Amino acid sequence: MIHRSLAAIVACAVVALCGTPALAQGLASSPSISYTRDIQPIFTEKCVACHACNDAACQLNLGSVEGALRGGSKMPVYQGERRTAAPTTRLFYDAVDEDGWRKKGFYSVLDNQGSQAALMARMLELGHKTPLTPNAKIPDEIVLGLNRTNMCPAPQEFEAYAGAHPKEGMPLAVTGLTDQQYQTLQRWLAAGAPVDSTALEPTAVEARQITEWETLLNRPGASEALAGRWLYEHLFLAHVYFEGGKAGHFFQWVRSRTPSGKAVDIIASRRPNDPPGGDFYYRLVPVKGVIVHKTHITYPLNAAKLARVKQLFYAGDWQVTALPGYGPQRRANPFETFEAIPARARYQFMLDNAEYFVRTFIRGPVCRGQIATDVIRDHFWALFQDPDQDLYITDARYRGEATPLLAMPGQIDDVGSVLSLWRAYRDKRNAYEGLRRDAYAAAPAPTWATLWTGNDNALLSIFRHFDSATVNKGLIGDVPQTTWLFDYPLLERTYYQLAVNFDVFGNLSHQLQTRLYFDLIRNGAEVNFLRLMPADARAAILGDWYQDSGKIKIWLDYEDIDTDTRSGLALSKHHAVREFGQQLLQRTQGLNVAPDPINRCTGAYCSRPDQPQALRNAEQSLSRLVSRPAAGLKVIDQLPEATLLRIQAPDGKRQVYSLLRNRAHSNVAFLLGEAYRYQPGLDTLTLYPGVLTSYPNFMFNVPAGEVPAFVDALQAAGDDKARFERVVERWGIRRSHPQFWEYFHDMSRFIEETEPVEAGVLDMNRYENL
């Protein structure tokens, strides 16, 4: 249990907080309030959607009692131009109590300030006395989204903040607390914000499996230690859950100074592959706080997975006599660091769980990933090369030549050396691409057997929503303009560059090197895919991906592609990419978990045949919006990146769809100037059942019988803002809608009903003011 002093229970503080004797009298006689029972549920319903992860305003994280006690900070996590790395401020890692956070510059939002109420109390009062007009647009003077500059007033600065921003109390620019919720929070704050906490305890089934896994990763011996290190570095981001475990129980891997059976003492290194500073043990600890969707990257552990890991890493005859150390060189090239572990075992482990690994570097949990996402297209598929067709796996000589060239930048963060470092690593990468091109030119021509089809992780769809992205199993949407083909060197480098080695608190040099190298990674994935295309079509396809200024990038930074060696796939020269996609869909019907008649309608019926008639009719109407360029559907220009449609069936049930805007670009090869490469007339929409975003930008609630009218209204709106606003007024759920939170959290409930392990609170920081 956690307790705080109740010294603030004095009448003057109560009167100062409440403003009226009647409410003060009510507070004085109020029964005790439990943080766990009464307060956290309010935070979860009304606050966590904005106050979680690194992008929480003022770093105020209200997903747990520890976050509430930590308070706020003026230091921004996202500050790409800083010349020196910022101190890390990770909740549960970088300080263990309030005093530790105060020393790091955090200030309390719960403590009364003499005769003044707590900062949270005053922020809530400011928000409660200025309610919004129901379902009206938010006033223009309130800046929202990523363009908002968080002012983060300290307690003594509140009066100045309130005077300058009288309509910007909390919750910010959204339907606020109910009167009961408001009074409960104010009573709690007036009482000194006492807290209690109940730690998550593993069940007996979970505890047994935790012991098995900790025993495995901490086995004695040099080879065992190297295998344990590789596994930890690949699973440290996972929200682990166990077969037979309790719903909602998740765990994560940490390095601890204490062994199994003792209290965990976390080693809070900046990266998971930094020096541990002494003896350590791999431990599984409960994930604390409210589960939020954007950081919730799940990974199952069970008896079959344990046997698989033992088979891959602990049953072979490989040995290591001296363990590699830690430090910049080891971080830069994990292929050298772990070269003693068979490459096939490493790659196969990643293939078995490919969705997890791609999610770690595409979806999160950095929580504001524009440094990565602006280098990818808005919609593409990801495929994987079969281990038996991967020369890095099958050819020891090739592997030996390639390994030194696979080092990655970002370990040296000297700002003055960023260009020279970039050029050095670019040249290494291009030397590797030349080596790969020539080696594969001498290998048998690729066929459909080149693609790995071992399980349903083999086919993935990625959708980018400006500064966030999602990954889902299956081939979703129309055949995309580009497809990525990962082999082992590319998959491992992407994971290390964007997940293991990336430091969100890093400086300009580190972040710039990471972004520039990811451009090379994307190009490598595209070039891998080009090898499947007809030789005489590859230059034209590459030119389509790198139009206009992209051609400069091809000349300046990329290695030449192979335009001579034939492909074993029977594809026409002029429509090779689309034919490949169509044949892939046919060949993988049994593996593809995302059949998609809405976006890939080939006949008269463009809906899922297994749905009730009302939903089939709705999908048939909605299919008129998808896979059409914006030049012929002008309303696309008025839609945000990720819209959720809640279709209410006559029987009371509802289906949720994601309506995703795929922005078109002449190329995505440059760090700056995205607007100059944007091709709005080529934008399209993808509509798919389910929630395919952690950051909804808007919601529509449409009765199934009104879907045809809704679609007609969108088509008729075109680029007319007044017409589009009428659509929003009739079916839209604005931030000020009286039932906003009911609809917003219903999206999470839908995930819980359809994919319970993946459920978490969605984020509304990007919810737009349509």
Descriptive labels:
12 strands, alpha/beta, 770 residues
Task: Kindly describe this structure.
Helix content is 38%, strand content 9%. It has 770 residues and is of the alpha/beta class. The chain has 4 domains: 11-190, no CATH class; 200-326, no CATH class; 373-594, no CATH class; 613-758, no CATH class. A 4-stranded mixed sheet has the order 7-6-5-8. Strands 11-10-9-12 form a 4-stranded mixed sheet, sandwiched between helices. Helix 1 packs across helix 2.
Task: Give the secondary structure arrangement, pairings included.
Blueprint: H1 11-18, H2 21-28, H3 35-46, H4 65-70, H5 98-103, H6 119-128, H7 158-164, H8 179-190, H9 204-217, H10 222-235, E1 239-242, E2 251-256, E3 281-286, E4 298-301, H11 303-314, H12 328-332, H13 334-337, H14 343-352, H15 354-362, H16 370-373, E5 379-384, H17 391-394, H18 396-402, H19 418-441, E6 460-465, E7 468-473, E8 483-486, H20 488-500, H21 508-530, H22 538-545, H23 550-557, H24 576-587, H25 613-622, E9 642-648, E10 654-662, H26 674-677, E11 684-689, E12 698-703, H27 707-717, H28 721-731, H29 740-754
Parallel strand pairs: 1-4, 5-8, 9-12
Antiparallel strand pairs: 2-3, 5-6, 6-7, 9-10, 10-11
Helix pairs in contact: 1-2, 3-8, 6-8, 15-20, 19-21, 20-21, 27-28
